What we know:
It is a single chain. By secondary structure, the chain is α+β, with helices and mostly antiparallel strands. The chain has helices spanning 16-26, 46-54, 97-107, 122-130, 138-148, 153-157, 165-169; strands at 6-10, 58-64, 67-76, 81-88, 113-118, 134-135, 159-163. It is globular, with a radius of gyration of 15 Å.
Amino acid sequence: MALMRSSIRESRPADLNAIYEIVNDAAQAYKGIIPADRWHEPYMPMDELRREIADGIRFWVGEDDERPIGVMGIQDKGDVALVRHAYVATAAQRRGIGSKLLRHIEGLTGKPMLIGTWKDAHWAISFYERHGFTVVSESDKNSLLRKYWSIPARQVETSVVLADRRYTKR
């Protein structure tokens, strides 16, 4: 394997198509895993991505030799920060760029951090647990998803929320 010269930088408007491609490539892992009524093609349409950015999600791009290979967003929600839309291109997975992005995002805020993901996305849950996040109780999950996310009830029932140490200590 070639030595990767990876870097992390804040996204620019010119990255919109790369973010779209990375999200929809990596999200193929959910096909057949998440409930069929929550899957659609593309997984994140361009207009949804634009709405997420307009709603305050700041994306960070992980690059390999200046080529975008991963993305992760952070969204300030007042008393907490949310990790949003964390994806690494399929061909670039398992090389540490997701970990690098997460460490970078964690360093951007002193606020407690929360992550929502699909209940059956065991690989994603394991990734976050390896990085110190803990799955919250079902009742906490339900109230957190209603308070901080704008997602349908069906997605609430089929998701989990993970919290960092800052959240669990409060």
